[in-house]
Queue: 3 jobs
Job 1
Amino acid sequence: MILPKFVTLVEVGPRDGLQNEPETISTTDKLKFIEILSESGLKEIEVTSFVRPDQIPQLSDAALLANQLPSSHSVLYSALVPNLKGLERARSSGIKKIAVFTAASETFNQKNIHASIQESLDRFKELIPEAQKIGMEIRGYISTGFVCPFEGDVPKEKVLEVAEKLLEMGIGQISIGDTIGAASPKDVEETIGFLLAKISAGKIALHFHDTYGTALANVYAALQLGITTFDSSAGGLGGCPFAPGAAGNIGTEDLIYFFHRMGIKTGVDLNKIFEASSFISNLLKRPLSSRQWQRLRSQQKGKNSGNGK
Amino acid sequence: MILPKFVTLVEVGPRDGLQNEPETISTTDKLKFIEILSESGLKEIEVTSFVRPDQIPQLSDAALLANQLPSSHSVLYSALVPNLKGLERARSSGIKKIAVFTAASETFNQKNIHASIQESLDRFKELIPEAQKIGMEIRGYISTGFVCPFEGDVPKEKVLEVAEKLLEMGIGQISIGDTIGAASPKDVEETIGFLLAKISAGKIALHFHDTYGTALANVYAALQLGITTFDSSAGGLGGCPFAPGAAGNIGTEDLIYFFHRMGIKTGVDLNKIFEASSFISNLLKRPLSSRQWQRLRSQQKGKNSGNGK
C-alpha cells in the first residue's frame, strides 16, 4: 500500500491526559511538561480546558496556565471551550485555537456534558462566529465515534450527521474519538470510509484510546484510508486512574515509533516526548501505559543500575 | 477489505510465555494452567521444550509435564525439540507434534542456540525424517523474521531462503517470529508479501511480540495478506522478567477481542483464557502485559471492592 510521507500529531497529554488524574499537578509542573513537549517538534498541543473550574478540578487553573505558556513560534497551543464564557476566558488568556466537543451518542453526551447533541450544536452556533471574529482556529471533537459505553455500536450515519453539521458551522477539522478504545480496524474502515464519501480526509483527525491494544491497528487502517492527523498523549496518559495499568490515550511515543519505523515523518523527537512523559510519571508516582514508554523506562533503569543490555 | 471468517490461534504461553520467568512454576501448576487453557476451545497449545534441562531451567520438567497432560481429544499439545535426543524424550512422553527452531539472522541463531543457520538446518535433516516415521506433525520456527537485535533489519530474501528450506524438508507450517517485537505493518507487508509469491498463506503462521505496541497492527496487515494462523500467549506472558511492564508475546486475550470485534471467529473463549492467565499471574505475583488482561483485571477488582462501574 502507499503510505503518506508525513503525518501530523496533535498532543493532548496536558488536557485529555491529565484531566482525570486525581493527583493534583501544580500549574508550574504543567508548564514544565508543556515546555518540554514544545521542544519536541510538535506543532500543536492541547493544553487545558476552559470548562467550569469545578467540573474538572485538575484543569481549574486553565487561565493561569494559559497566561504563562512558553512563547513558542512553532507550537500552536489549543484549549477546550464549552461555551461563550469559556471562549472569553480562553481569549483573554491568549489562546489562539479552541476545540469544541460533542458526541455521536446521545446518552454519552448527556452524561458527559448534560446536553443533547442538538443542544451542544446550538451552543456552537453562538460560539463559533464569535471565535471566528477574533481569528481563532476551531477544532471539533466527536466523542464515541465508534462505540458508546452506554449505547454500544454507534451508527456511522450519526457520526456523519454530526460531522457535517460541525463542518457547516465553519469548523476546520473534526477529531473523531474512540472514547473507550473499543474500535477495531473494521470499525475504522466502515465509519471513516463512510464519512470520506462526503468529507475530505484532511478535515478528519482520529483520536484513539488503547484500552484493548487496538489503537495502532486502527491508526494503520486509518492511514490506508488517507487520514494523516492523529491525536495522542505523551506516555499514554489518560487511563482511568482507578484502574492501574489500564491504557489511556494512545501514547505519543508509540505513534512516533510506529510511523518512523514505516518511514513516515512526524517531525517529533521521541526522546523529548519521553522526557516530558517521564517528568509527569515521576510526579504521578506511577508508570505510564505506552508500550514504548515502558520499554524506554526499563532500558533506562537497566542503565542506571549498571545492568544495561 | 475482505476479512477471513475464521482464524487459528496457537497458544504458546506455557512454553514461550514461561521460559524466561525466574519464578519457578511447579509442574502441577503448569498442568493446571494447561488444563484451563485446554477448556477454552484452543486447538493447539505448545506446552514445553525438550532442550537440555540446564538450558531452560523453567522447562526442565518437560518429560514429567508431558506425561501428565490432560487427555484431550480436541487439543493438540506440541513441544519444541532441538535434536534427536529431544525428539526421543518428546516421543516417549506422548507428544504428537513437535516444533523445530532456527532464525533468519546468523548472529541471533549463534547467540540463541550456538549454531549457524545451516548447522541447525542440518540437524533438522536428521530429525525430521525420524519424526515423520513416528507420525508426528512438525512446525518450524524462524526467529528474527523481521528485525534482529544484533544485525538490525533482516533481509526478506534470507527469511524466504530459510522458510523454503524448512518446507522442502517436509515441515507442515512455518511460524515467523518478530522476536523483539519491533516490526511494523510495513515490514509485514514487505517480508510476508515477498514470501507469499512462493509459499501459500496456509503454510505461514505469524508470531508477534508486543514490545512497541505494534502487534495487532501487524496482525491486521497479515490478515490483509491472507494469513490466518497466529501465535499468542495467555495474558501476554513472555515479557522480559527484568523489565516490569515490558510486553511479551501478543496476549491471547488481545487477539481474541480483536478478531471477535471484527466478526472473525477464533473458537476460543476469552473468559477461559483470562482465567488461565490470572492463575499464572497470581503465581508470578505480577500483573501481565495484555491490554485486555489488564482491563478485565481492573474490572474484576472494581467488582470485588463493590465499586464496579
Note: Confidence is low (pLDDT under 50) at residues 241-245 of chain B.
Job 2
Amino acid sequence: MKAAIISIGDELLIGQTVNTNAAWLGKELSSRGIPVYASWAIADDPEEIITAIDQLRTKVGLILMTGGLGPTKDDLTKHTLTKYFNTELEIVPEVLVRIEEFFAKRGREMLDVNVQQAALPKDCTVLHNYHGTACGMWFEKDGCVIISMPGVPYEMKGIMMDEVFPKLKDHFELSEIYHQTLMTQGIGESFLAEQFKDWETKVRDRGFGLAYLPSPGLVRLRITSNQGKKDATEIQNLLTEVFEELPRNAYCIGEKSIFEFVGDLLKKNKMTIGTIESCTGGHIAEQIVSIPGSSVYFEGGIIAYSYDQKVKLVGVNQEDLLKHGAVSEEIIRQMATNGRLKLGVDVCIATSGIAGPDGGTEDKPVGSVWIAVATKDEVVLKLFRFGDNRERNIHMTALSAMNLVRCQLQGISFEKKID
Amino acid sequence: MKAAIISIGDELLIGQTVNTNAAWLGKELSSRGIPVYASWAIADDPEEIITAIDQLRTKVGLILMTGGLGPTKDDLTKHTLTKYFNTELEIVPEVLVRIEEFFAKRGREMLDVNVQQAALPKDCTVLHNYHGTACGMWFEKDGCVIISMPGVPYEMKGIMMDEVFPKLKDHFELSEIYHQTLMTQGIGESFLAEQFKDWETKVRDRGFGLAYLPSPGLVRLRITSNQGKKDATEIQNLLTEVFEELPRNAYCIGEKSIFEFVGDLLKKNKMTIGTIESCTGGHIAEQIVSIPGSSVYFEGGIIAYSYDQKVKLVGVNQEDLLKHGAVSEEIIRQMATNGRLKLGVDVCIATSGIAGPDGGTEDKPVGSVWIAVATKDEVVLKLFRFGDNRERNIHMTALSAMNLVRCQLQGISFEKKID
C-alpha cells in the first residue's frame, strides 16, 4: 500500500510558505512502513483538487490532503469534497460544542464562519481536531482512503497522531516495520561511513536497511527491518557496536534530542544548569526550555551580547576583554566560571563566537566559536570552526555545547583543542 | 504561460529533505509573472519522471525539474531525458574544462564519474553551472520548454539566475503578476475576514486575488493582480485601508518579520533593547539576534526562569514574588522596570507565564502569559491567554511582545486588559 500527499494552497505554489507538512507526513508515513508515491502541491481550485484525487487514487491506497479548510472564503476544499462525494454538509453537534469550548476558553467571540466549521459532509468519518476549529475528514472511494486536514502544521500533526494513524492501523494490514536509531553529534556523515564500512556491509548482508540521516550538527544512523520487532535485539546489538566506538559523539540509541538526553542526565544527578550566551543569543536556553519539565534543572541564564553586558552582568574583567577580545579562551573561561557563581548552578555553559555573516577577521573567521562548560571541579573549553551560515552556526554551537556537557557529566574526557 | 515544478528525489518523499527548492522557484517565478500551476515531488524513477513530464506538458509551457543529476548511481534524470528526447550523450569539451578547473581549484582528485558529468544530450541547450559540476539542460518539445537542473539548492539557484531567467525572458512574452502583502499580528483570520467582508468584496470585484495566510500569531493578507505593477498603487491603497483600521495589529505593508520591523524602528530611533524572559526562556532574544545586524540595538538579556533567578539576577522583591506568584501584574512590572535598569537599555521586554503542558491552575490556566514593555516613560503590561501548546505559546508570546514594543515606539495606545 502506497500513499500520496496533496498539499493545497496558492501560498505553496508561489513559495510564500515552504511545504514542511509534506516533509513531516513523508517522514511519519515511511517510518510506519507506508511508502510515499508522490507529493503534489496544487492550487486552491476545485477542478485541480478533483483532478489530483482522480489521478492519484488509481496509483495509491491512501491520499492525505492538507490545506483549504479554514473559515475564510479562499478555503474551498470542504465544499469541493462534499460535491465530489455527492453528499451534503450537516452541522455535527459534537464538533459544534468543541468549537464553542475552544472560543470560550480563549475568551473570544464566536462568529458565524466558526459555526460553519462544524458543518461537515454527511458521508465522512469526522477526524477531531483538538488544536483548532477545522476538523479533518476521512472518505473512502473504490478502496482508496482519502483524508482531508487543515494546513496549519500543528493542527494537521495533531489530527494525524490523534486520529489518522490509529485508524490507519485498524484499516490497513501494514507490514510491520521496525526501526532503531543511533544518535550522534559532531561527526560527519562521510566520516561515519568511512569508519564503519565493514560494519555497514555486515548490516546490509543481514538484510537490514541502513540510512545515514544527517542534519546540521547531527547524524542519525537508522537500521530498518521489515520483519518487525523480532529483530529488535539484533539491531540493538549492531548499533551498540558503533555506540561503543564513538563515546564522544554517539549519545544514545533511540530517538532523543541531545537537549532531552542531557536534561535526563541532569535530573538523574540532581544537578542544575544555566547559560551565559553571547553569539547564540538565547538559543541554547530556549532549546533547553523547550523540553517540558526543564524547570527542574534549568535555573536561568544571561545573554551577554554586548561587551558592556559581559562586564556588567557576568563580571568579566574589562581589561582582559579589551586585551583578548570576546572570542578568546580567557574570556570564555571567565564567562563560564563567573557565570556559574552568578547563577548559582552546578553546570554553566558559556558561548562566544562570530556567528556571521559579518564580524570575521583573518585570525577569527566567521564560524569561530568558543564553548566552555564549568562545573565545581573543572572548566572544559573548546574552540570550534563552523561555517558561513549564521543560523546554522548558532544551532551547531548549541548542539556542541550540549554534547560537551554530556561528556563532562559522563566522565568522557575532551582534550582542549581546535576542532 | 504557466510553469510546473518537478522535484525528483526519494529523500523528498520520505521527508528527509524539506523541499525548499520548490518554494524558492515558486517565489522567483511568480515575482517574474510566471504563475506556478503545480509542484510535484516524485521518486528517482525513470517511469515516474516521464509520466510527470507527459502529464504536465499538456498543462504548462515551462517545466522546471530539479534533482537526479549528481555523479552517484541513484541519479537517473540525465539518462532518462536523453532517452525521452531520443538523443544521445556526448562529452561537451567546454564543460569538461570547467569541471577540471573545479577540481583543480579545490585540490581534489577528479574521478571518472566526474568526467561523465561533461557528457550531455546532443539536442539540449547546456545551462552552465558555475557552482558545481552538474550542468542544467534546456529542451523543447511541442512548444513546452523542459529544463533539468541539479537539486543542490545553491547550484540550482545559480543556474536559474545565470542562465534560465535571462533565456526565459527572451523566449516567452510574459504576463506580469504583482503581489503585495499586509502583515498583521494578534488578530485571527476569521476576525479579519468578518471585519473586512465588504472590503473583500470590493477587492474581488476589482478582479484581484485575495488570500489570508495565517501562521501562529500572524496573518498575512495578500492581494494579487495578474496585470502586473501597473496595479501597484491601487493595491497599496486597498491594503492601506485595512492598515489604517488596525493600528494595533497591522504593522507593515510588504513582507517583513515583526522582529526585523521592530529592529528597524529601534535603529531609526537610536534605541537599545533588552529582554527579561521567564516562560519564553530565551526565545525572544534568540529571535532578535537571528536578524543580522541586531548587535546595533540588542544589548543582552536575562533568562530568569526560576524564582531564585528572578530575585538574584533581576532584583524582583522576594516577598512580592511569594505573595503574588511569578505570573502576576506586580512581578511582570518589576521584571520590566528593574530589568531595564540592570541592562541599561532604552526598552526592556519582560515575559512571565505558564507555557504548559503542566503548571496551570484554575486562576491561571496553561497559556496565561504576562508581557510587559518598559521604557523610561512608562510600562505597558498585558495579560494574554494563549492555548495548550507549549512551543506555540512561547512563539505567540514572542510575537505579541514585539508587537507591544512596536505600538509603544509608534505611540499607539494599548489598554491594559485580558486579551
Note: Chain B touches chain A through 92 residues (CB under 8 Å).
Job 3
Amino acid sequence: MLQSKLFTKTRKEAPKDEVSKNAELLIRGGFIHKEMAGVYSYLPLGLRVIKKIENIIREEINGLGGQEIFMSTFHPKEKWVATGRWNTMDDLYKVKDSSGREVAIGPTHEEIVVPIAREYVSSYKDLPFSLYQFQNKFRMELRAKSGILRGREFLMKDLYSFSKDEKEHNDFYEKSKIAYKKIFERAGIGSKTYITFASGGTFSKYSQEFQTLAVTGEDTIHICEKCKVAVNEEIIAEQKVCPECDNDKLQKEKAIEVGNIFNLGTKFSDAFDLVYLDEKGEKKKVIMGCYGIGIGRLMGTIVEVLSDKDGIVWPKEVAPFSIHLVELGDSAEVRAKAEDIMARLEKEGIDVLYDDREVRPGEKFADSDLLGMPYRLVISERSLKEGKVEIKERKTGEMNMVSEKELFDKVFLKKLIGP
Amino acid sequence: MLQSKLFTKTRKEAPKDEVSKNAELLIRGGFIHKEMAGVYSYLPLGLRVIKKIENIIREEINGLGGQEIFMSTFHPKEKWVATGRWNTMDDLYKVKDSSGREVAIGPTHEEIVVPIAREYVSSYKDLPFSLYQFQNKFRMELRAKSGILRGREFLMKDLYSFSKDEKEHNDFYEKSKIAYKKIFERAGIGSKTYITFASGGTFSKYSQEFQTLAVTGEDTIHICEKCKVAVNEEIIAEQKVCPECDNDKLQKEKAIEVGNIFNLGTKFSDAFDLVYLDEKGEKKKVIMGCYGIGIGRLMGTIVEVLSDKDGIVWPKEVAPFSIHLVELGDSAEVRAKAEDIMARLEKEGIDVLYDDREVRPGEKFADSDLLGMPYRLVISERSLKEGKVEIKERKTGEMNMVSEKELFDKVFLKKLIGP
C-alpha cells in the first residue's frame, strides 16, 4: 500500500486523556481512534493487526475442530433470566426494544449458544463439538482507562465446547491449552505468557488464565520458573506452592490476562436442559467449557510489552505489513526502483507499506519506528549507486546492506516474513 | 468439510412464526438461528455465505480505493446531537452507559466517521479518500417480519466518500455504481437488479437504489426495459417517465432494495466543520457520499429470488461450498473413493461439503437440494463400477456422468466453481 494514500497520519504528541501506553502509541500511529472512554474504532493499520490476530486464532481453533458462527448482539431477556444472570451480572447493558421489552447487549454468549446447541443435540452421536465466534462484546466497565486492554465495547473470540462426559471435556480442555500456547507464540508474546491457575468456580478446582508479564498489568501472578506456570494472586493465599511441583519459591510479577479457559460443567446445560441420550438410551447432561481471548486486548498487550522508546515493535505474524519500504529523495530512478521492488515483494505474497510521501528522511524514519513493521527497507540515491538496499530489523535495530539478488532469495524472504 | 461433523442438521418443517421464505429456508437448512423478532445468529453454513459476500464486496470496494476500518457500535450522544439526529431518528436505540450518560447504538456511522476524517484532513492534498466497514447495525424496527431482510440487528457494509468538490464526488459516485453492479452480478442477482431513481434529499435531485425484482419485495418500482433502470414508487408521481430516455411505458414490479448510494453534500461536513484548505489557501467544505449494502439482506434476497420448491439455489460465488459430494452406501470402496476425490478437489482450492452420514439416499438428496450447493457429485457402488461420477447442477437439474479425468480437467473445474 502507498503510504501517501493512507488517510491516517502519525502524531508527535499523545492525546492528553490517554494514560495507557497502548492507546498512546496506537493513537499516535493512527491504528485506532478513541470515541469515548473504553470505546475505540479501528483504523486501516489497526484493523490489519486485528485481522491477522483473528486469522491466527481461526487457524488454531479450526485445528481443534471448532466451527465458526456469528451470534447476535441483542439477547432476549428471558434467556438471561433462565440462567439467573439478568439481575446478578453488574456490567450487563440493557436496552428497551421497539416493543418496549428489555433486551441484553451481549457481554458473553452462553445464553445464546446453549439454546442453539440444544436445537441440534439429541443423541450421543451429536457430540462432541465446539463453536466459536469473533464478536463485539459489551460490558459496563466502571473504570476504562487502559486503552484497548479493558473496553466497554471490545472484540473477543469466544469458544464453547460441548462434551458427553468429563473425560471428553478434559481431552478438549487440554488440547485447547496447547492451541492457546500456539496462538500466543505466533502473536509474539509466547515467552512472556504463563498458564496461570485461578479460581475455578463450581465445577473444577481451578480455571486457567493466560497471563502475559507486563509492568503495567492489572493482575498479579506468582510464577514457578521450573514449571513455567503461575498462580493468580486471588488464590495464592490457599495455594502457596506451585500446583505442579510444590515449589514454594514463586516469583511475584505484574501481568495482563490475555485469555482464559474454564470448565462450565453443567451450569448452562442445567439452565436450558441441554441433554442427550447415551448408548443405553439414558438421559445425560452435556458438559461444557468456555474459552476466551480478547482480540483488542491481545493487540494492546503486544504494544504494552514489545514497544520501545521509539514506538511499536510488531511481531512478524501480526504486523499490519511485513515490510516498510522507505524511499528517500524524489528522483525518478529511486521511485522506479522502489515501485519495482514493491511489486516483486507483493508478487511473493509479502505485504508492503511503501512510504512514497514527500517528507524529510528524519520524519520518515521516525514514523517507521513508531509504526513498527518488522523490517524497514530503504531505497535512496546512495543505495542505487551501490546496487544494494538497506534492511533494518525493527526489533534488534540491526542494519544490513543486501543486493537485490540476496533480498529475493527465497530463504532470506522466508526469514523476513516468518513464521 | 464432513457433513457428519457439522453440528447443524436440516429440518423438514419450517418454524411456525416465520412467514418469510428466506428465514424459512435458511432456518430449515441450518444457516441461521432466530433469537427474537428481527435478530438472528449465523450458523456455520450461513456464516460461510456472509463471508463470501463480504469478500466480493471487499474486492470491489478496494478496487475503488476504499480503506477498510471498523468503527464502534457505541456512539457518544453529543455527536448525534451535533447532527440533530439524536431526537429525530425514530429507530435509534439509546442505552445508559456506566457513567449514567446515554449513548446511541449505531444504526449508521456518519456521526463517527466524519469526526475521524476530520482528524486527518487539513489540506486539499489529503483528499479524496473513502472509508468502509462491515459492521452490525441496530435499528428499532417496528415490524421485523421479513427474516433477515429487515432486522433490528443486521450486518451492513457502509462506505463513505470524502471529496474536494462536486466533480470529484460525482466521479466517485459514478464509479461506485459500476462497482455495485459488479457486486450484484457476482452475487448472482445481477440480471434481476435495477438501478432505481429515488428521492435525493437536500443535495441532489435523486439518490440511487439497487432494487432486485422479487414478488415478496416491500418496494414497488417502475422499470424502463429499454434503459434497464427504474423509478421508485415514492417519486413516480413527479417522475412519470424514464429519467434517462423519457419512455413513459414503465413496468410496475415488486422489488427488494439491496443497496443504495447517496450524495450527502455538506450535511455532515457542516455539522462537524470538516473543511480543508485548497491550493489558494481558501477554506472549503468536504463533499461526502454514502454507499450501503445490507449483507444479511443481500443473502436473504438471493434466497427469496433464486430458490425453488426443493430449496435454496446458491450462485457459485456465494455458495457455502462449491460442491456437495454425496456418498451412497457404506462400502469401504465408496468411502475411499469419496475421500480421495474430496482431497483432490480441496487441493485444487475447491470448497467441498462431503455428506458422509449414514442416512438413506432419499434424505441425502433432499438435504442436498435444500442446502443448495451449485453442484452435487454422487459416488456410489454403481458409479464406481462405471468408473464415473454423477454430477448434477442444482440450478438446472442437469445431470451428467463424467470420468475422473474429465472431472479434474482444469477447464471443467473452472466451469464448476466459476466465476
Note: Chain B touches chain A through 53 residues (CB under 8 Å).
